[in-house]
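Data card: per-record layout.
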Amino acid sequence: MRIVFKTDYMQDIRPWKDGFQLSLYMLLLALAVVAPFLLDTFYIGELTNVLIWAIAGLGLMVLTGHTGQASLGHAAFLAFGCYANIILIEQGIPFLIAFPVAGILTGIVGAVIAIPALRLHGVYLAIFTLALSILTDDLIVLSEPLTGGVAGKYAPPVGVFGLQIDRWGTPDLFYWLTLAVVVLVTLGYINLLRTPLGRSFIAVRDSEVSAQAMGVDIARTKTVSFGVSCMVTGWAGALMGLYAVAFNNETFSVVISIQLLMMIVIGGLGSIHGAFFGAVVIGFLPQFLSISKEYVGAVFGGGSVAIPGLEFGIFGMILILFILFEPMGIYGRWLKIRTYFELFPFYRKDMFKRQKSYLKTERLR
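The structure for this 365-residue chain is written out next.
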């Protein structure tokens, strides 16, 4: 049985529980840094894709996981961040300026959209954001002088501190650039949740009536949450455009929005770790299925058979299984395993048993 004795107020302020947990995070970061020396180019590209999905998951987690506002339209903000970044670079603005500005512009647009959108609740908010994602496809085509329309745009190599970074030409440098963004966004997210604003997000998610009784401005909190969520999502979209190199209106379809929501549910709603666990699933599942089909074809004879919709079918099945048997997601399951070993032999199954009844305060109208 492992117990942490707190002897300093700083132990309540710092983001890690103890030195052991910090050492695990530092070890994980060290492995991520040296990954390009251990893996080949293909797997470095796949790992980069996972990191980009993790940033997008963190963006949606702010809104859905920690503020309780469902969104099916974040593909629109991925697209906005992607196009804003490339357009700014084409105007001669350096990447180190264009990239953060693209995210900030996406956040501003998201906050403006949130003013009327967050008057809606539950499924109506989800429908509104879904319609926004569908409408973005048409807006990209109609804004052909800026976006290139159906033909799309091409992402040029970007310069960072004198280095030319290209997805195909220098995959290692592009991976390290993405990793740096992931680390900065994650550290910012951790510190945001420890601020009064971050605690307001969680209060609104748990009970709007109780949050207002404690002096939380519900409308302001939701709007800021939507803006921060869109800003982080915009940065993910900017990296996604550089990763894809060539993109158009079909790149950021409504399917991306659904995948994002499913990703954070599978990973674990309301946790930063959940965004990363979900990104691993959504990033590596297509490659796992591809390798599995080739293996099955080699064992049983015949070539690899393409089955339309197999990826989304399996992903949907995984989501259903998690909703039925593990609603806390992958991170929730890991918490149970960790708690088992920390409290052994005093662990009991009922510690994580879902309650039969609970107090539910009605949302504000």
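Known properties of this structure: The longest strand covers residues 158-160. The chain has one domain: 31-351.

See the next section for split statistics.
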